[in-house]
Amino acid sequence: MIHPILFAAHPTLFLYGQNADQVGFGEVWPTLLRIVAGAAAAWAALFIFGRNIRRSALLVSAFLVLFFSQAHVANVLPSNWEPILRYAWLVLLVPTTVMILRSKSDLAGLTRGANVAALLLAVMSLSSVAWAHLGTGSIGFDSLRRTIQGKPEHPDVYVIVLDAYGRSDVLQNYYDFDNQEFLSYLEDEGFRIVQRSRSNYAQTALTMASMFNMQYVSPLLRHHGIGRPNRNHLGDLFRSGVVFDELRANGYNIVAFSSGLKPSELETADVYIRFGTKISRFESMLFDNTPIVNLRLQHVAGNYDTYRSRIEYLFENIPRAPEMGTSPMMVFAHIEPPHPPFVFGPNGEARNPRGGFSDRDGDMLIGKWTTHEKYVAAYADQLTYVNKRVQELVDQILQNAKRPPVIILMGDHGPRSRLAWQSEADTDHREVFGNLMALHLPGVGNAKIHPSLTPVNLFRLVFREYFGGELEDLDNRSYYSTAKAPTEMIDVTDRAQAPPDL
Fold first, then answer.
1. What is the percent of the chain where pLDDT is above 90?
2. DSSP letter at 173?
């Protein structure tokens, strides 16, 4: 009667087999031991309480199977089933438990079936581990890896994504916001401001997947054979980005801060820092495939005070990243402001927008919970405070650095007061794609930076200049897609790069 132990071991071993190229067994075995020990303890406690070893074993196995299977079921069902699936495992667990407890049989047949199923899963998980250690393929870029290995004194790299942070002319024309004082500060600190920067996409998940693979999303989806993509696929592309692979191959540690936003949660980082906590990337990957994710990865914490605390935590702790990992390191953080919700006044004073907690924008917000005029004013106020906090953050990073770091400050897209989520024709692409791109690239001259640089080419530039990589830029294109069909692209480059002349 071994099925509870095998069911407990399977999720950890199987996940390890799928990610053996990213984690070592030394990171896996403590998690494996804790889960197996927990299952054994629960089995023993239930036996002491009920005095029936088969019944107690089946109760533990039922819990384990339902608990660890939620995300796998969710991945094969339409995304609109997600709210139902959050609690479906619990709904199924209750009648299953009642059935086992009330059964008048000796449960021998059910126990044999559970043992067979558990043994099959054990074979599957161990085969997955063995196969992983026989060697795996990669997405490519072998020539890049050969050219950048062995370079000494790699700089630390900070990638700080400020959601919906607009380019200076966009801010001036659409928000009547003069950002020159902040940009002048950055230039005095050695940053280059990309004057005609724009994003490749108007949605965070698309930008993250593209930027960290140095490739547009449509070719990435074809490369991976994803015929009917959804947002989960975009997140997977981001987290498995080739940029992280290549940096790790050159001795980098990846340090990531949790944003509370699923499209930019980098649980696969070597050091993954949640709001006030730090856990291993393997544990994060494992438990993000369980109902625990519904408790700690709700889109945001559910109230404005907690949300503000999360944002302040990021500003305060990003400069402390060198205390949490070893150099060289790449530090990644996605900070949602200046994007809605607009919870800060210009001096950091607390504001609680009406209409319940939401981070919607564009026509999902304007006309329903606020007016265009109020949106513009609230964005400008929040941006004023963000600028103050970013300046403090940059000061601390530069002061703490042992050698000049690479710092990327960017918007994943532009502001979106004039975004129509389901209509390309009704969207003002000049605003929506006009993002901030401020680069601290020590030793790299202005001539090396394309005046219309987009995120897809950002790391191609970094690898060329600091690692000797041989990657040419792709064409700087911009693509609109709707909220319902994010991977169905419409090329809007001509309209996105037009000056915001109102």
1. 50
2. H
DSSP per position, 90-101: HHHHHHHHHHHH
Is residue 237 domain-shared with residue 323, that is, in the same domain?
A: yes
pLDDT tens column, 179-199: 999 999 999 999 999 999 999
pLDDT at 294: 56
**Helix, coil or strand: residue 187:** helix
One DSSP character per residue, 195-229 reads TT---SBSSHHHHHHHHTTTS-HHHHHHHTT-SS-
User: For residue range 122-131, what is the model confidence (pLDDT) as tens digits?
Assistant: 888 888 777 6
Alpha-carbon gap, residue 155 to 149, rounded angstroms: 14
Identify the residue with better confidence: 74 or 397. 397
Quick one: pLDDT band at residue 359, thresholds 50, 70, 90?
A: confident
Distances from the Cα of 409 to the Cαs of 14, 103, 159, 335, in angstroms?
Answer: 37, 62, 7, 11
**Residue 233, amino acid:** H
Domain assignment present for 392? yes
Q: What are phi and psi of 158, to 5 degrees?
A: -110, 125
Within 8 A by CB and 6+ apart from 73, the residues are 85, 88
As for how many domains the chain has, the answer is 2
Which of 1, 5, 10 lies closest to 41 in space, CA to CA? 5
User: pLDDT digit string (tens) for 402-416?
Assistant: 889 999 999 999 999
Taking the C-alpha atoms of residue 254 and residue 256, their distance in angstroms, rounded to an integer, is 6
Task: Please indicate, yes or no, if residue 138 is contained in any of the structural domains.
Answer: no
CB of 263 closer than 8 Å to CB of 256: no
For β-strands 157-162 and 406-410, DSSP reports them as parallel
Domain containing 403 equals: 144-496
Shared-domain flag, residues 157 and 181: yes
Asked whether residue 502 is domain-assigned, the answer is no
pTM (2 d.p.): 0.70
- Cα distances (Å, whole numbers) of residue 438 to 36, 185, 473, 474: 48, 11, 18, 20
Amino acid (1-letter code) at residue 89:
W
Count helices and strands in the chain by DSSP H and E runs: 19, 10
Diameter over CA atoms, the chain: 80
pLDDT band at 11 (very low <50, low <70, confident <90, very high): confident
Band of pLDDT at residue 26, cut at 50, 70 and 90 = low
Q: Which residues pair with 344 in a beta bridge?
A: 350
Write the DSSP assignment of 223-258 as a string of letters: HTT-SS--HHHHHHHHHT-HHHHHHHHTTPEEEEE-
Helix or strand holding residue 9 (H, E): helix 3-18
